Every structure is written in C-alpha cells, then in structure tokens.
UniProtKB/TrEMBL annotation:
Extent of the signal sequence: 1-22
Domain annotation LRIM1/APL1C-like dimerization: ranges: 536-719
Protein's UniProt keywords contain Nuclease: no
A GO term from the CC aspect: extracellular space
Basic and acidic residues biased stretches: 689-730
Biological process annotations from GO: defense response to symbiont; protein stabilization
Keywords: Coiled coil, Leucine-rich repeat, Repeat, Signal
UniProt KW Transmembrane helix keyword: no
Record protein name field: AGAP007033-PA
Stretches the record annotates as Disordered: 688-730
PANTHER family (UniProt xref): AGAP008170-PA (PTHR45712), INSULIN-LIKE GROWTH FACTOR-BINDING PROTEIN COMPLEX ACID LABILE SUBUNIT (PTHR45712:SF22)
Classification via InterPro entries: Leu-rich_rpt, Leu-rich_rpt_typical-subtyp, LRIM1_APL1C-like_dimer, LRR_dom_sf, SLRP
Species this chain originates from: Anopheles gambiae (African malaria mosquito)
Gene3D superfamilies: 1.20.5.110, 1.20.5.340, Ribonuclease Inhibitor
Amino acid sequence: MCWLHAVSLISVIFFTCGSVAAVGGNNYWYTEEQPVATTKPSFHVNGYNIYGSQPANGGLPANGGPTYRSETNFGGQPANGGLPANGGLPANGGLPANGGLLANGGLPANGGLPAKRGQLPYGTPTHIGQTIYRSQPNYGGQQRYNARPRQLEYKCIEGNLQYDCVFYDVHIDMQTQDVYFGFEDITLNNQKIVTFKNSTMRKLPAALLASFRQVEVLNLNGLQIEQIDTNAFAYAHTIQKLYMGFNAIRYLPPYVFQNVPLLTVLVLERNDLTSLPRGIFHNTPKLSMLSMSNNNLERIEDDTFQATTALQNLQLSSNRLTHVDLSLIPSLFHVNVSYNLLSTLAIPIAVEELDASHNSINAVRGPVNVELTILKLQHNNLTDTAWLLNYPGLVDVDLSYNQLEKITYQHFVKMQRLERLYVSNNHLVALNLYSQPIPTLKVLDLSHNHLLHVERNQPQFDRVEYLYLDHNSIVTLKLSTSHTLKNLTLSHNDWDCNSLRALFRNVAHPAVHDADQHCKIDYQLEQGLCCKESDKPYLDRLLQYIALTSVVEKLQRAQGRCSATDTINSVQSLSHYITQQGDVPLQGNEQLEAEVNELRAEVQQLTNEQIQQEQLLQGLHAEIDTNLRRYRLPKDGLARSSDNLNKVFTHLKERHAFKLRETQARRTEANAKQKETEDLEQENIALEKQLDNKKAKQAELRQETSQKRQKVKQLEAKKNRNPDTRRVTK
Ligand SMILES: *[C@@H]1O[C@H](CO)[C@@H](O)[C@H](O)[C@H]1NC(C)=O
Ligand SMILES: *[C@@H]1O[C@H](CO)[C@@H](O)[C@H](O)[C@H]1NC(C)=O
Ligand SMILES: *[C@@H]1O[C@H](CO)[C@@H](O)[C@H](O)[C@H]1NC(C)=O
Ligand SMILES: *[C@@H]1O[C@H](CO)[C@@H](O)[C@H](O)[C@H]1NC(C)=O
C-alpha cells in the first residue's frame, strides 16, 4: 500500500507540472540532431554568453522570426533581472512551431531559471527559420572558452503532463561517441522527469545524466539498452525513480548505483541479467521498490539487500532462481518470486502479499508473520501444511497443484480471517474440517482430487459460499437447509442417486454450476449429474473397488508386474477409506470377507517376500562394503550401493587386465627360454654326431695305419729272405 501512496504522490507532481506548463502555453522542447551554424557571434562576459534575453512574459510576436536582441549584457548580471516563474522565454519563443507551440519556451517547470547567472539559451532549429545562438559549452560544469561544434546533440521537448522532457528519435549504438544532451550550460537542463520516444540506445552513455543533473524520474524503458556506462549515474544524485525495463541489459557495472542515494524505485524487468554484482545495492538505502522479473537470475546472495532497509516491494518472477532467502529482508511487504526454481520458501516477518507459485517448493519456513494476507503457492511440490500455523492472518491461500494428501483442521485452528482456500489438483484423500470448521471461510476449492467420503464436513460446507467439489470420487453429500452456498460444483464424481435426490431438496439447482454429460455403465443422469442406484452405496463402491483392484492385480501378476509396494499402498488406502467410513457393515458379506482375508494373506506373503528380498539386498550391500575395504577403495557415502558395487567391479576388471598382461609377458619370456634350450639341444646333437664321425674316421685311420704297418712288416720279411737285396742294402 505504501507503494501505491508513492504513485499517487507522483501523479500529484505531474499534475503540478502540467499546470505550470499550461501557464507558459503549450510549450515544447525541440530535438535536434545536428547543431545549426551559429549566425551570431558570441559575447563572452565573465565566461557567459549573453544574448539578449527575451521578455519574460513570452509575449513575443507569434510569428516574428528571430527576435533576439543583439544587446549583450553585462558582467553576469541577470539578463532580465530575475526571470519570472515561467522561465523567461528564449529568443524564438512564441513562434508557431508545430502548430503554434512555442519552440522551447516555458523552460523549467520550476520556474527558477538560472536567474543568478542571468543567462538564457538560444537553441532554435533552423528548419523553422530560426537561428541558433549557442551558449558557451558548459558541459560537465566546466567553462570552456573555445566553442566547438558538438557532434551529436539531442534536445528534449516537453511532452505531456507526465514528462517535462521528452527526447524523440535518439539513436545511439555501441560505436557512438561524443553524444550531447540538452544545453551546454547544464544549469539549463533542469528538467526532472525525463523520457525517450521512438529512440534506441544500445549503450546508455554517461553524458545524459552528466548534463541533466536534476532528474528525479528517468524512464529508459524499451530502448534496447545492452550496456550501461559505469558512470551512467555518477551525477544522478537526485534520481528517485529509474525505469530500465524491456531492454537487453546483460550485466550491471559493480559501482553503477554508488551515487544514487535517493533512488527509491528501480525497474530492471525484462532484461538479460544472470547475476548481480556483489554489493550492488549497498548504497541505495532508500530503495523501496525493485523489479527484476523476467531476467535469468540464478541466485540472490544473502547479503544483497542487507543495506536496503526500506525495501518493500520486490519483484523477481520468471527468473531461474534456485536460491533467495526472503526472510533476510524483514522490510518486505509485497513479493513475487513466481516462476523460478526454488525448493524452499523463507517467508519474511512482515510480508503481506507473497506470490511463490510455479516453483518446486516442498518446504516453507520463516518466523511467525501475522501480516501475511495473500499467499500464492500453486504449482509447487508441497506435501504438508503444518507450516500454515505461522500465518494466522491469511485471507487468501492458493495451494492448488501440489502434492497434498490431506487437509486437516489442526493446521487451520489459528486462522482468524481466512476467506479463500484453494486446494484443487492435489492428491487429497482425506478432508477433516468437521472437527473445527474455519468460521470465516467463504471459498473452498477441493476440485480435482481423490476425495471419496466428505459428508462429515457438512458443518464446514454449510457455511461457505463457494464450494468446488468436482472431479473427485465423492459418493454422498449432505447440506442443511440453512447453508449459505452461492456456487457449488459437483460434476465428475461417483454420486449415489438417493443422496443426490436428498441433496437437491436443500439446494436450489441454480447454485450448481456444472453438469455431467455422458455416464458410464450402471450410472444414470439425475439433476444433470451421473449417479448410481444402490442400497448401500459405500459397500457397493467398496466391492466395485476391490473387484477392480483384484482384476488389475491379477493382470499385473500375470504379467509379473505386481509389486508388493503397490499392493500394500492400495490396501492402505482401502483401509483408510474403511476407517473414514466407519460404520460400513463389512461383516455381513462372506464373499467379501473371504476375499479380503485372501488379499491380506497375500499381502502378508508379499510383505515377507519383500523383507527377505530386503535382507538379501542388505547382505549384498554388506558384501559390497567388504569388497570395497578389501580392495581399499574409498566408499562414496552418498552414492547408491550399486554405484559402489560398480566401483568394485571396475577395480577388479582393471586388476584382472593387469594380471593378464603380466601373465602374457611371463609366458612370452618362458617361450623364448624354451626355444633357446631347444636350439642348444639341437646344436648338441649335431656336435655329438660330428664327434661320432670324427671317432669313426679315427678308427678307420687306425685300422688303415695298422694295415699299412702289417704291409711294411711283410715287405721287411720278404726283403730279409732275399740275399741280393740284403747285400744291396748293406
Ligand atoms: C521514428 O524514428 C525513425 C528513425 O529515426 C523515423 O524514420 C520515424 O519517422 C520516427 N517515427 C516517428 C513516429 O517519429
Ligand atoms: C507475479 O508474477 C507473475 C508473473 O509475472 C504474475 O503472473 C502474477 O500475477 C504476479 N503475482 C502477483 C500477486 O501480482
Ligand atoms: C516436483 O513435482 C513434480 C510434479 O510432481 C515432479 O515432476 C518433480 O520432480 C518434483 N520436483 C522436485 C524437486 O521434487
Ligand atoms: C461458479 O463456478 C463456476 C466454476 O468455477 C464458474 O464457471 C461460475 O462462473 C461461477 N459462478 C458464479 C456466480 O460465481
């Protein structure tokens, strides 16, 4: 609400400006891309150019050409001795530019032109036949004496009641340099509410706010800004509201908001921010409204808002946030963190409206907050509602599209003003609001759940105005004649016809806002709703349910898909159903009892089997651990056993491969040795053979020798027997 106050305050300001502008006539500022040649020499008097000031009343001839006076004046004296509130019109004031609008008259809404300097600007576009007289360049507050033409220069016109300065057709890209805004004497650029139309500005230059140093509201939405000059806001000491949405800003320079102590509203929605520089908001203590929705932010670090103690309104929807601890920003009042990736929601102490829908939230924490009025948590992963006890002031709670299984009065006992509770599209099987109905509740949406028996909640149903029960499995419903229902939905349930007939005796049909069309077999349309005739409706549904379950189970068992867990779950929901129903005469039906017993036995058997399997599994896990220890593998505590087992397998495989390689090397070595041995043996044999040959030859030679000796002996003997020979030889 504080935020709304600020807005209405601003519209008051706008209105004031509007009236001032009206006093000066429909005054406009001109945009001017190229400066036009100066046709009149400048006079330098104490560093100021003084071109004859115009009559303050702006009552210049409506179409009278250049009407400046050529007299110069004088030593920094007020040109016109203190200009009147409408700012003293410039040279060409009163010209029928754009249909009788003054070219740049009515200057400052604050009326207080720089009277103490006595200086007036001359900036007149030639295309309407005006000449331009430049004042001394006074850019950045420095006096410069050598006027040089400014490359690219934009001037603004007063646009409408909302803005006292609108720039048209400004086009700046990444390469643009030396761009100038407004008058060279920056004291003349005293507009406070500035915007751009039909413009693009790829890079936000420092020049804009260096020239316009009194801006309080700056609207830079939709200018295709990609980059912000580090010094873009270095002179923006007065800025309070800064709109930079619908651009393409990828990052913020770390110190860009260092000198904006009065910044109250900052809008950066629909940009390409992925993160925020550390400490980016540490010097913006007055920041009360910040929007950064539709960016790509991933985290909001815990110290981001430690200095923004006035931050009330925070818009962060449609980012990729996995972390933001809102409870660290106790000043928050309105928050939107919808469409992110949060799994925990930390609710701050005084937030009044909080939209955290479309996340993956499964835990809600934070201090007690009695202010919280509207809480949107649809499309999350909640399984529990006990945390609601911390928010007794809730009026409006949306918990639809979660994983809730029951709604119980215990979590709502502290609610003092709860009017609307939305729990559609959950997994509700149990509803207990009968023990202690919520007295203030007006809207209760329970549609699209698995509710079956809700009749007991009549005390609650009777006192609400809107009750949505469609798309459940409800069989019977009772309402008293004094119910306050205005709208009731009942279609897509499992109605008992007798119950419907009784119900419609107490409920005027127009209150029922939906209907069934086609009924399944055994069902008929009655009062626009499908229902079934039976004497004992719950028993009938129970039998039907059991039959269905058995059929499904038999089928699954036949296909080997029947798991013990499934069976246990279905029997549990069955027994829940029975407990809820309480007085179903189960005993009467022997066939039913037999079947239930049979099922129980089967469940028991399956449970035993499951226990055995689990034991086996545990044994296997232990064995895996033993192996891990044995092979000195580190155990990853968080990993599943199968992963650890894989680790053992990988290790063993590697070990095996290593051993195999080693064995092969040994074998090759052995083979080589064996070959060597064989070669040696072969050589041995050859040598032996050679030896044998030698021996044989030796024997042969010996024999030959002895034969020869024999022969010699014989010959000697012959010789002795012959005397002639003896003689001869003597
Ligand atoms: C917008 O700017 C473009 C390009 O500068 C120009 O051609 C066009 O006339 C402008 N449109 C309006 C409505 O001023
Ligand atoms: C939060 O933001 C989403 C997305 O922009 C929007 O649809 C929703 O209406 C906002 N919630 C509130 C409470 O304004
Ligand atoms: C949240 O719930 C959805 C839908 O039931 C499910 O697909 C998703 O895995 C859940 N996410 C978490 C983080 O639990
Ligand atoms: C009643 O509820 C239905 C279903 O939500 C809706 O279409 C209809 O407009 C509601 N009627 C009134 C009077 O609120």
